[in-house]
């Protein structure tokens, strides 16, 4: 990650939210040049203007005919569930018992954790994802393995040790004190190291005692800059269970708030079954929703109301939620997000979809000053998309007359095959053979 290099192609990024700025949100260079110095964006503009100013000998990677966008940002994924993606036939609570817990048990073995982490990070890059917020397991070694694999690839990774001290199998059950001590040690070891950030990680309110929830809230408060990630209001049966476990709370969200877990950098996956009071509290506290459409559909959880979240002013990112989610591909995730909104009688404009996958995802993680766009000084993570990656894509995009039409074709017809290359910090991290 040193020196000067340039990327040429059709370059697209967002200056803000299309819901606020309309067409002014999108910056488009049909033949653009992105100049990178020491891993950071130095300049962006028309290739015809910038190429003559490059110092002699500067490496220029030519992606003309392809689209260059900021690297995708996945705000909720389980690396330990990689091996159970596409497991048949359950809703979320049964899914945990039948598939998740037995699979996560294997992560007590550091060698197994390392092997899965290596595959997981490679699979993210193969799909154009350069930043992810991920759950590990209760085992500290599972966090070490994921951070080590991400660090080797210079990826930006947010992760943490799962906290569970009740309503889970004995072989995964921690104690409140042990979970707290293990999390503190991992924060000291990894948070802020290179591009790595730590997330305090109670799995969800039903699997933590009030004591553990209080300690998690204290960890979040006592370590400025760390994140908190959990699940919220994914499934109606889950919501009813939480109401029985925490009868004093007004709502599922209120449980987290009572234990000091709402605020900037707290990210809650799903949020399908919230009310307007919940959304207002999330907006007021700066908490974030991770919208996980493939998982919500696959597990039969429900249809997320993106319009209400937007109207309430809640920060929203996109999550694949592998393995309940069915694809590492952010293009496939956008495909399903579009359909979820259709079923709700809403619309997801293509520009807003790609915004949520890039700059919007960065904003939801409070990282838009570092990633998610090609603004000067940002970390130079990018994905190169090939509109002719498959025969059908090539045929469809050949008759497209606008950028929006070509992006929409990629969003509906694209998957990992459409990713020609992924760059991390201004260097190629994966290229399609």
TrEMBL record:
UniProt protein name: Guanine deaminase
Sorted UniProt keywords: Hydrolase, Metal-binding, Zinc
CDD domains: GDEase
Task of the protein: Catalyzes the hydrolytic deamination of guanine, producing xanthine and ammonia.
Catalytic activity: guanine + H2O + H(+) = xanthine + NH4(+)
Record GO terms (molecular function): guanine deaminase activity
Co-factor binding comment: Binds 1 zinc ion per subunit.
Protein species of origin: Aromatoleum anaerobium
EC annotation from Swiss-Prot or TrEMBL: 3.5.4.3
Hydrolase recorded as keyword: yes
Domain spans labelled Amidohydrolase-related: 67-427
Cofactor dependence: Zn(2+)
């Amino acid at each position: 990650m040193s020196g000067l290099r340039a990327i040429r192609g059709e370059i697209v990024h967002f200056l803000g939210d299309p819901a606020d700025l309309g067409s002014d949100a999108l910056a488009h260079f049909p033949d653009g040049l992105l100049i990178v110095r020491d891993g950071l964006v130095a300049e962006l503009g028309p290739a015809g203007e910038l190429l003559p100013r490059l110092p002699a000998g500067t490496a220029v990677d030519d992606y003309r005919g392809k689209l260059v966008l900021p690297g995708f940002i996945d705000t909720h994924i389980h690396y330990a569930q990689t091996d159970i993606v596409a497991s048949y036939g359950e809703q979320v609570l049964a899914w945990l018992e039948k598939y998740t817990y037995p699979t996560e048990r294997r992560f007590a073995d550091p060698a197994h954790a390392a092997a899965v982490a290596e595959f997981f990070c490679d699979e993210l890059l193969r799909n154009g994802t350069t930043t992810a917020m991920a759950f590990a397991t209760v085992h500290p070694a599972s966090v070490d393995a994921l951070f080590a694999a991400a660090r080797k690839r210079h990826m930006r990774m947010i992760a943490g040790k799962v906290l569970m001290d009740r309503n889970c199998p004995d072989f995964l059950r921690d104690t409140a004190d042990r979970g707290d001590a293990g999390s503190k040690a991992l924060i000291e070891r990894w948070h802020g190291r290179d591009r790595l950030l730590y997330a305090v990680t109670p799995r969800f309110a039903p699997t933590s005692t009030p004591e553990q929830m209080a300690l998690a809230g204290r960890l979040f408060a006592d370590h400025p800059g760390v994140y908190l990630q959990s699940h919220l209001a994914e499934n109606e049966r889950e919501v009813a269970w939480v109401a029985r476990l925490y009868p004093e709370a007004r709502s599922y969200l209120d449980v987290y708030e009572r234990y000091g877990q709402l605020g900037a950098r707290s990210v809650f996956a799903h949020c399908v079954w919230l009310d307007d009071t919940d959304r207002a509290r999330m907006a007021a506290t700066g908490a974030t929703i991770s919208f996980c459409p493939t998982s919500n559909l696959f597990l039969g959880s429900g249809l997320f109301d993106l319009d209400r979240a937007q109207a309430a002013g809640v920060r929203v990112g996109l999550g694949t939620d592998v393995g309940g989610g069915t694809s590492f591909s952010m293009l496939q995730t956008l495909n399903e997000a579009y359909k979820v909104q259709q079923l709700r009688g809403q619309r997801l404009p293509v520009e807003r979809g790609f915004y949520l996958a890039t700059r919007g995802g960065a904003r939801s993680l409070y990282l838009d000053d570092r990633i998610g766009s090609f603004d000067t000084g940002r970390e130079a993570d990018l994905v190169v998309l090939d509109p002719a990656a498959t025969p059908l894509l090539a045929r469809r995009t050949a008759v497209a007359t606008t950028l929006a039409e070509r992006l929409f074709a990629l969003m509906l017809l694209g998957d990992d095959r459409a990713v020609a290359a992924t760059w991390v910090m201004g260097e190629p991290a994966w290229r399609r053979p």
